[in-house]
Amino acid sequence: MTDRTRLHEDELAFLHLDLFGHSDDGRGLLDGLLDLYELAWMTYGLMTGGLVLAAIPLLGNAATVMFTFYPPLQAHWAFYVGLTLVVAGTWLVTLHLVLTYRTWRAQHPGERTPLAAFMTVITFAMWSIASLGLAAEMLLMLIPWSLGWQRGTDPLLARTLFWFTGHPIVYFWLLPTYVSWYTLVPRQAGGKLFSDPMARGSFILFLLLSTLVGMHHQFTDPGIGQGWKLTHAFLTFAVFFPSLLTFFNVVASLESGARARGGRGLLAWFAKLPWSDPSLTAQVLAMLLFAFGGIGGLVNASYSLNLVVHNTAYIVGHFHLTVGTAVTLSFMGITYWFVPVLRGRGLWSPRLALVQSWLWFVGMGLFSFALHDLGILGMPRRTMISAAPYIQPEWQALRPLVGIGGSILFVSALLYFLNMLLTCVASHTPAPETPACAEALSGPEEGPAMLDRWRPWLILTAVLLILAYGHPLVHLVSNTPLNVPGMRVW
Ligand code: HAS
Ligand code: CU
């Protein structure tokens, strides 16, 4: 056996372990998958190449368009092409997963898909559908326009296509976090997943509903009918629901762990979680702040209330609790076991990791609380406030909290990277074992077989998408003047 084949097998065995946790028929899967090795490297090359291509104009000050790259702000074409390649790379990941999944399916007829695999495939299916908006914006508008082939552009159409993808992108970040909360955290807490079928149900709802709500970012955009905006507001309340299911399921699972460890009382069991485990601590602290991020999201989504908070610091507070904590702090917690497993060495300092997690929690608590408050007091986002002539006296008491919270976060981030670096180069403790997925109190067989099918859900997703976006998109495309020239303000 050549070295390369061995690498194939190791990697694929890991993939197998990772996605199809409890199946024991590893060999057949490996046989079916050897040719996917090249595909994986191609994906890696495409995404890295895209990143580098986008980074060159970014660093060269030729892409000063911020992360939403709204036209008429215009960047160098390489920025748009680079980002498009990154997205194309994610489609190859979907292809890889689907091929793997089909092989597994063929070899395990009648078996329920393991939960982690099911959730991973849903995440990428959802994302691949969602990314079509961005792909259309890039290929049909921004790239030809930045190359000078199209004289003008249309900010409204571009924003609509952007947010078609831009909202579900937040679930593309969140769902991997949920995969960990559902499949690994219950066991880390010493317990079991409360309900496997409910977990699957919540992911199917994400597939169905994630892409129907983008206009909740466009409540103040002229040129889109109020009826459509209101529809998207109601659909946002609907996509809130699978996160409520997650709230219930994950907290019940944590509770099962804490009670098994001797926890008592209505809420006092919470103290009995294994708080000395940094991986678990980081993720539970992330959950706690996410509960507030979710509530803020509901405020944002409420059509009329949105007018109070839109374009203010409140939104910045919101997304630091969601992507900045639920996702980021959870990912940090995940790497506290994952990097040691990959590197074959123990975490350099679990205690430092605990300090880091708590600092993130406290720092973000301050930072985001102050930003929410400042937003309600009317402080705008995306603005250099210290230089604004309209600075308000009632903002002044809160602004230092943003700075203090931000500084604590900065220290926390440094400690995180330090710990990761030292784990890779200086740790001498033995490697932990790859964690196994949690068992479920109520297993997959207890749910309807319907939950493990794809075609009906994909068809329903397409139908809902046409209902939520068909008419407004056709209207915008058929009326677009494409006549707004590009500009660069910095
Ligand atoms: Fe959002 C704007 C609405 C979730 C990210 N959002 C943003 C922006 C970002 C972002 C980056 O409707 C700014 C974009 C920009 O630059 O303009 N968002 C929502 C709603 C949800 C939501 C309804 N957002 C997220 C997530 C994000 C994210 C997730 C990133 C990962 N958001 C909006 C709206 C806007 C918006 C409007 C536009 C505003 C504007 O005007 O510009 C929901 O999905 C949230 C559901 C969450 C929950 C919480 C569940 C809690 C769990 C943990 C439970 C466990 C605990 C342990 C607490 C329902 C699962 C406790 C233990 C015990 C003992 C109890
Ligand atoms: Cu959104």
Q: What does the model show?
A:
With 490 residues, the protein is mainly alpha-helical. A two-stranded parallel sheet has the order 1-2. The N terminus is likely disordered. Bound molecules: heme-as and copper (II) ion. The site of copper (II) ion has 4 residues, from helix 7.
Keywords:
490 residues, 16 helices, single chain, binds heme-as, mainly alpha, binds copper (II) ion, disordered N terminus
Q: What ranges have pLDDT less than 50 throughout 5 or more consecutive residues?
A: 1-14, 16-34
Distance between the termini: 57 Å
Radius of gyration, rounded? 23 Å
Main pleated sheet: 2 strands, parallel
Name the average pLDDT.
92
Order of helices and strands: HHHHHHHHEHHHHHHHEH
Number of helices: 16
Fraction of residues in helix: 55-70%
Bound molecules: heme-as, copper (II) ion
Counting copies of identical and different chains, the oligomeric state is single chain
How is the largest sheet built, in terms of strand order? Answer: 1-2
The counted number of beta strands is 2
Shape: globular
User: Which structural class fits the helix and strand makeup?
Assistant: mainly alpha
Strand content: under 5%
